[in-house]
Design brief:
5-stranded mixed β-barrel; Rossmann fold; alpha+beta; 8 helices; 5-stranded antiparallel beta sheet; OB fold (Dihydrolipoamide Acetyltransferase, E2P)
Length: about 270
């Protein structure tokens, strides 16, 4: 805290005994990339939270590490600044092409920034893969819950149909795509954006699952609405726009039909 921003960024380079001229060139170069050149003369106590984050990032990047550890870098920021910081990190990564291990409790942050995601609980990696892997084939209900308003159920195979399976979820039978390595008992996943909500039973549809359900709750999710319904013994969540919600007259107690493609239903 007693050093200026310039001295903080230069610290790692000076420890490596680099010539002063090279240190100065590297500090000013990274400061320009991170847009903190005008802050180099100031001390940490005079900087905002966002400015301090950028100086800390400059100090880490200036030594050109093989891997950069970012431990919840946006956690102390207000929501609008967190979104700005995510965009900034994404642009910075595109420009400098560094490798980072980014620790976060925010799935939004992980989804926006990561090329690979590892889900950890109590020091153990429960699942690692691409964003699509985590979203569509979560390894456990707790991972599915962490990703947001996803529908994930414990299920049991009652018929193996080759690339597809018929599974039993409590008192409901559904068809799904079978993920590689799926066993006789596993997890069935359907994302709420893949579910079509209607007031009349669809006709003439093939390769689809259709459930009759009763709406229990409607909750706003930003520009969309989350419709939670009960079909038999299971609860199903689907997204609707405000226009669709009003057009279908969706409210608690309404009887609806929930339709989703077999190809959008994954069993693993």
């Amino acid at each position: 805290p007693h050093m200026t921003a310039y001295e903080n960024i230069a610290f790692g380079l000076l420890q490596r005994k680099l010539p002063r001229s090279e240190v100065d060139q590297k500090v000013k170069s990274i400061a320009e990339i991170l847009d903190v050149k005008h802050l180099l003369h100031r001390k940490p106590a005079t900087l905002s939270g966002g400015e301090q984050q950028r100086i800390a990032l400059a100090r880490a990047l200036v030594t050109e590490p093989d891997v950069l550890l970012l431990d919840e870098p946006t956690a102390a920021l207000d929501p609008p600044l967190r979104a700005e910081a995510r965009r900034y990190l994404k642009r910075l990564h595109a420009e400098l092409n560094f490798t980072a291990v980014h620790v976060t409790h925010s799935f939004t942050e992980a989804a926006e920034l990561a090329s690979k995601i590892a889900f950890m609980r109590e020091g153990r990696i429960l699942q690692a893969g691409t964003l699509e892997d985590i979203l569509y084939t979560p390894a456990s209900p707790e991972i599915a819950e962490f990703t947001g308003d996803i529908n994930a159920y414990k299920a049991r195979v009652v018929a193996d149909l080759g690339g597809q399976v018929e599974v039993e979820v409590k008192d409901i039978r559904l068809r799904a795509v079978k993920a590689p390595g799926a066993q006789s008992e596993g997890i069935l996943v359907v994302r709420p954006e893949d579910i079509i909500v209607s007031r009349e039973k669809p006709k003439g549809l093939s390769a689809r699952n259709t459930l009759q359900a009763q709406v229990e709750e409607v909750a706003q999710r930003g520009p969309l609405y989350l419709v939670s319904s009960k079909a038999g013994q299971i609860r199903v969540k689907a997204y609707l726009t405000k226009a669709s919600l009003e057009e279908l007259e969706i409210e608690p107690g309404a009887i609806v039909y929930l339709t989703f493609k077999v190809s959008s239903t994954v069993y693993r």
